[in-house]
Design a protein that fits this description.
Blueprint (H helix, E strand, L loop, with lengths): L9 H7 L1 H12 L7 H11 L4 E6 L1 H18 L2 E6 H4 L11 E6 L5 H12 L4 E5 L5 H5 L2 E2 L14 H20 L11 H35 L5 E6 L3 H16 L2 E6 L17 E5 L6 H19 L4 E6 L3 H6 L2 E5 L4 H22 L18
Parallel strand pairs: 1-2, 1-3, 3-4, 4-5, 6-7, 6-8, 8-9, 9-10
Length: 380
């Protein structure tokens, strides 16, 4: 069994480094329960009064952008579009004016994302870069840099850099809500709500630290049970859909298994034909009981689980601690403590990383150096 200090692979080490990476992020950007003005004021200035933000990214970073789209729109009313960086560079410039553009890249050197940044700069857009490497090209060339504080990531599959991106983007969404207070009466966040949300953020690293060992043990066992599986479907609703996509991507790149991520409600619109013995469903079924919309999404997911049980599907569920309803419908259940939904998304990512890690180990794969992949894609 892996100990706290001895790791066979960098990927597992970096999964366990996530509480510290998140704590370092909080210390830099939200110390003492307040947003750091020196960082967020330039970001607010770059966004200005614009009502539209385009996010250009690839791979895991694009999944972070998809989550950001939902939380930024919900909290601030800013319209967000998420583009594949490789496609953005070839869009008509007429469609790209009068907007702020954010690029997200672990390395800060990804070729197609850098091309998107340069296109945005070239037509006069304000640009924001979220990267994890000091003095990267994107950091230097963007109008404003808002780096993650994850530390160097040696394994090719992104783990701590991805959850650090999610936290950066949640903090940016909170900043956007505060800075736009009064612009649109439908979107307000007073000081008391901001204080409460930042207190929840401050508690996050400790909550993850307390659950990590249990997640690893649970996914070690699940991976053994699914050791013969070659295809997986990952399902999530709302902000959990990007996490489902990220879980599928991790399984592809780490364990060389076919996996697809879908919105839960899309399963019956075609992908359900793939549901059969030997194709496990990984269903994200967490809920924030303080949010009526989250409850509604959860109830829909539970109903889908019932339908899938009737089809004799094998289900791995990510659920809230103590959720007996989900546990009764799933073959395997891995629990995360309940919290506000954007923070749930960060937490539920980590068990999926551990599933990918152990599936890769079962297949004898050098998980730190998957075939045909590099840490930074430097050519299109």
């Amino acid at each position: 069994m892996t100990t706290a200090t001895v790791f066979e692979h960098e990927m597992l080490r970096e999964i366990y480094q996530q509480p510290k990476a998140l704590a370092d992020t909080i210390e830099r950007y939200a110390p003492n329960g307040k947003l750091a003005t020196d960082v967020f004021q330039p970001v607010a200035d770059a966004l200005g009064s614009r009502s539209r933000l385009v996010i250009a990214a690839s791979g895991s970073s694009r999944h972070a952008g998809l989550l950001a789209e939902l939380i930024i729109e919900d909290l601030s009313g800013i319209q967000v579009d998420v583009e594949y960086a490789s496609e953005y560079s070839y869009r008509s410039e007429k469609a790209l004016t009068n907007t702020a553009v954010m690029v997200i890249s672990q390395s800060g050197e990804t070729a197609d994302t850098l091309a998107a940044l340069r296109k945005a700069n070239g037509i006069g857009n304000e640009t924001l870069a979220i990267t994890n490497v000091d003095e990267s090209t994107m950091e230097r060339e963007a109008t404003v840099s808002f780096p993650t504080i994850a530390g160097r990531e040696r394994a090719i599959p992104a783990t701590k850099s991805f959850t650090a991106q999610l936290l950066n983007l949640y903090l940016l969404a909170l900043m956007s809500a505060v800075s736009r207070d009064g612009i649109d009466p439908n979107y307000t966040m007073d000081a008391a709500e901001l204080k409460q949300r930042l207190a929840e953020v401050a508690a996050l690293p400790g909550q993850i630290e307390a659950q990590l060992r249990g997640w690893e043990e649970a996914m070690h066992g699940v991976a053994y049970q699914y050791r013969e599986a070659k295809n997986f479907l990952f399902l999530g609703r709302g902000i959990h859909y990007p996490i489902a996509r990220e879980g599928a991507l991790k399984l592809k790149e780490s364990a060389y298994l076919h996996a697809e991520g879908y919105p839960s409600g899309e399963l019956k619109h075609g992908p359900n034909a793939l549901v059969a013995e030997g194709t496990p469903l990984v269903m994200i079924a967490t809920v924030d009981h303080s949010d009526p919309d989250s409850i509604q999404r959860y109830e829909k997911v539970v109903q889908l689980m019932r339908d899938m049980r009737d089809q004799h599907a094998s289900i791995l569920a990510i659920a809230n601690t103590g959720d007996e309803t989900v546990a009764s419908l799933a073959d395997h259940t891995v629990y995360v403590a309940e919290m506000r939904e954007p923070l749930l998304a960060i937490c539920e990512t980590i068990p999926l990383q551990l599933l990918s890690y152990w599936m890769a180990i079962n297949n004898g794969i050098d998980v730190d150096h998957p075939r045909n992949l590099t840490k930074a894609v430097l050519a299109e």
